[in-house]
Write a structure and sequence with these properties.
This is Succinyl-diaminopimelate desuccinylase. The active site is at 78, 137 (proton acceptor). It catalyses: N-succinyl-(2S,6S)-2,6-diaminopimelate + H2O = (2S,6S)-2,6-diaminopimelate + succinate. It is built from nine helices and 19 strands. The chain folds into two domains: 7-181 and 294-375, Zn peptidases (Aminopeptidase, 3-Layer(aba) Sandwich); 183-292, Alpha-Beta Plaits (2-Layer Sandwich), CATH 3.30.70.360. The model has no long low-confidence stretch (mean pLDDT 96). The strands form six sheets. It has a six-stranded mixed beta sheet with strand order 1-2-6-3-7-18, with helices on both faces. By secondary structure, the protein is α+β, with helices and mostly antiparallel strands. The structure holds zinc ion (ZN). Zinc ion binds at residues 76, 107-108, 137, 166.
Length: 376
């Protein structure tokens, strides 16, 4: 039996490893150094090349008895760049009062520390536990969780349930979990015309009015009214570009960009096709780039396990939400039901990112309860 560490002590070790996205090396050495003494086998691998890689990933698993349930934690050890103006060095964790400061304190090395602390004294006989940890969540996520899912499938070690440790709490630890996220598609629009003199429009073909009409139709689309669990899907025009410096020239080309956040009534592909058809009608083209499909784990047994654990430790009942941006749960949903629950997100991606020390330890106790319930 190894010595039990506090979530705080583990968080300090992880925060001390600089790991700006995409991450490789020391922070994963640290992770393996924490999990291997607990009986986990770490499958580490590096994929990709600059600029989006190289990326390190780790699938750590400790198998329970044959046929026992498999509960997985998922998360990322990469962090966004710290930026300027920190009170203390971003990769030298510093405790001031009740808070622990460092880049990644809440997003999401702190949560990973709580996960590790949570499983320390759970015996292997309780069931199979794994950690799905990537070094590329904050970047393009091309070589991250998707590569881990491929490995897990090759190994035949698909979990039964997966908890992602993104910082989902808003005003206090435990007030929110994410049972789903909207999908996201960005679409690049273009209309080609024929350049010419504004005084001789019959010799030119102005693409701007066509683009304006196309955007008006897109902006007027009613995608849906929302669902029981999701807000209505939303289309935003995010860029219009003609780039014409001359007042007397009809430009040759006009471009625009839209971004759609959509619920589970749509797929990125179907929305892309719909926009392509509208663009064509107005004499233009559309190039959809899907960032992620939506996911929903409808509230049920799994969300109840998390709600019960939170309520037992903190006396709060978490709201089951689908708000916010995308996360790696958009990939993990292909493996098994997935829910996100973690620390308070007020300082994520900000200067002087910090976590309340009490929250780290409380989260470890909550994660421990969830693990035991999932393996029961
Ligand atoms: Zn994150």
């Amino acid at each position: 039996m190894t010595q039990t560490l506090s979530a705080l002590a583990i968080a300090e070790k992880l925060l001390a490893c600089e790991s700006i996205t995409p991450a490789v090396g020391p922070v994963f050495d640290c992770l393996a150094g924490l999990l291997e003494p607990l009986g986990f086998t770490c499958h580490r691998f590096i994929v990709g090349e600059a600029p989006d890689g190289p990326v390190e990933n780790c699938f750590a698993i400790r198998k329970g008895p044959e046929g026992s349930p498999h509960f997985a934690f998922a998360g990322h050890l990469d962090v966004v760049p710290p930026g300027e103006g920190w009170t203390s060095a971003p990769f030298l964790p510093e405790r001031r009062g009740e808070l622990l400061y460092g880049r990644g304190a809440v997003d999401m090395k702190g949560s990973i520390a709580s996960m590790i602390a949570a499983v320390q004294d759970i015996p292997a006989e309780a069931g199979t536990i794994s950690f799905i940890i990537t070094g590329d969540e904050e970047g393009p996520a091309i070589y991250g969780t998707r590569a881990l899912i491929d490995l897990i499938r090759q190994l035949g070690e698909e979990p039964d349930l997966c908890l992602v440790g993104e910082p989902t709490s808003v005003n206090r630890l435990g007030d929110m979990m994410k049972v789903g996220r909207r999908g996201s598609v960005n679409i690049f629009l273009e209309v080609e015309g024929v350049q010419g003199h504004v005084a001789y429009p019959h010799l030119a073909d102005n693409p701007v009015p066509k683009l304006v009409a196309m955007l008006a139709e897109l902006d007027g689309l009613h995608l849906d009214d929302g669902t029981e669990w999701f807000q209505p899907s939303n289309l935003e025009i995010t860029e219009i570009e003609v780039g014409n410096p001359a007042h007397n020239v009809i430009p040759a080309k006009a471009k625009a960009r839209i971004s759609i956040r959509f619920n589970d009534l749509h797929t990125g592909k179907a929305l892309g096709d719909q926009v392509i058809a509208i663009a064509k009608k107005h004499g233009g083209t559309a190039q959809p780039v899907i960032s992620g499909e939506s996911f929903l784990t409808p509230p049920g047994d799994f969300s109840q396990m998390i709600a019960d654990a939170v309520e037992a430790e903190l006396g709060v009942v978490p709201e089951a939400s689908t708000s916010g941006g995308t996360s790696d749960a958009r990939f993990l949903k292909d493996l098994c039901p997935v829910i996100e629950f973690g620390l308070v997100n007020a300082t994520m991606h900000k200067r002087d990112e910090a976590v309340a020390v009490d929250d780290l330890e409380a989260l470890a106790r909550i994660y421990r309860r969830v693990t035991l319930a999932a393996l029961a």
